[in-house]
UniProtKB/TrEMBL annotation:
Residues 205-224 are annotated as: Disordered. The lineage of its organism: unclassified sequences, metagenomes, ecological metagenomes. It comes from marine metagenome. Belongs to the TolB family. It holds the Pfam family PD40. This is Dipeptidylpeptidase IV N-terminal domain-containing protein.
């Protein structure tokens, strides 16, 4: 494409976006504690400094392989990611979860059949297979799974068009090991319910009415939930998981999408079309004050929040540009 595809960052406090490097549509992106950003590309897992530069190929894709969702494991040597070499709608369910050493290039297949894996601090890998989330014990020192997988919850909503896209699951895991997810449906307009799963495994449906829930995100302390609802208008809500208060509407103007908590849990960044093209905003998580605009997208583009830096000072976001009735993705970052 002749489009200017880039990763950029922007400061939460506002200002001009800072270009970090070039990228096509990223298949998953994570901001790591070692001050780098990992993201999936057609040629493999790329890495770029949070301060910008030329993205480097950290892990080369095998012939015919597509990678997704890289995550730097504790120890900063091994990278966890999903891999598939098959085509069709089931390609991610027929894929593998693997880890590869940045130092030696050694690759280990951890899980056969499944994708969208996340390492959680409890010492487990959580991953998706079809519409089911599984957890399996993981030995970091030996870099291998222990025992067999356990079904955590069934009926999880996943991304559409997996034959050409990712198969990202609509779930989030807090550092304490609590899980929130969207129940899957056969149509985008289907109403869903929300459920919470703790380390012991039981699923507890939240005391919330059915709605068109998407993009649930737990706060860093695992006590609050931010979630988007679709319908006549897309709205972001927050909910105290103690159940002591009713669900609170956070956004009022326009359509708002894809909430992302700041690391300190004080603010929520999101995308909105309230002032024109979809741009980035942030707002106090308790609903006080007014939303502040962080970026201003050009006509024919949309800005989508992806991840915060660990210190909460910088936000990585994706830029999509329309071309020939379609969309091409870019990625950006800004200091906050």
């Amino acid at each position: 494409s002749n489009l200017d595809q880039q990763i950029k960052k922007i400061a939460v406090s506002g200002g001009a976006p800072v270009t970090l490097g070039d990228a096509s549509n990223p298949f998953g992106m994570s901001w790591e504690a070692d001050e780098t950003i990992l993201f999936g590309q057609p040629n493999g897992v790329m890495r770029v400094s949070e301060n910008g530069g030329t993205p480097e190929l950290a892990i080369e894709a095998l012939e015919g392989e597509q990678v997704h969702g890289p995550q730097l494991l504790p120890g900063e040597n091994w990278v966890l990611f999903s891999s598939t070499t098959v085509a069709g709608n089931s390609r991610w369910d027929e894929g593998n979860v693997v880890a590869e050493s940045l130092e030696t290039g050694e690759r280990r297949v951890l899980i056969v059949g499944g994708s969208d894996a996340q390492y959680v601090q409890t010492g487990h890998l959580v991953y998706a297979l079809e519409n089911v989330l599984f957890a399996i014990a993981f030995d970091l020192g030996r870099m291998e799974v222990v025992g067999g997988p356990v079904s955590v919850v069934e009926g999880v909503e996943r991304a559409n068009s997996p034959n050409s896209n990712t198969r990202t699951g609509h779930f989030s895991v807090s550092e304490e090991g609590n899980l929130v997810y969207v129940e899957g449906g056969s149509a985008l307009e289907l109403e869903r319910t929300l459920a919470l799963v703790d380390r012991s495994g039981p699923s507890e449906r939240l005391d919330l009415p059915p709605n068109q829930y998407v993009s649930p995100r737990l706060s860093p302390d695992g006590r609050r939930l931010a979630v988007q609802t679709d319908g006549d208008r897309s709205v972001i809500w927050t909910y105290d998981l103690s159940g002591g208060t009713a669900i609170q509407r956070l956004t009022l103007d326009g359509n708002s999408f894809r909430p992302v908590w700041s690391p300190d849990g004080e603010r929520i960044a999101f995308a909105s079309d309230r002032n024109g093209p979809i741009s980035l905003y942030w707002q106090n998580a308790d609903g006080s004050g007014i939303a502040e605009q962080l970026t201003t997208a050009e006509e024919g583009t949309a800005h989508w929040p992806e991840a915060w830096s660990p210190d909460g000072q910088t936000l990585v976001y994706k830029v999509e540009r329309s071309a020939n009735a379609g969309w091409n993705a870019i990625a950006n970052e800004m200091d906050l």
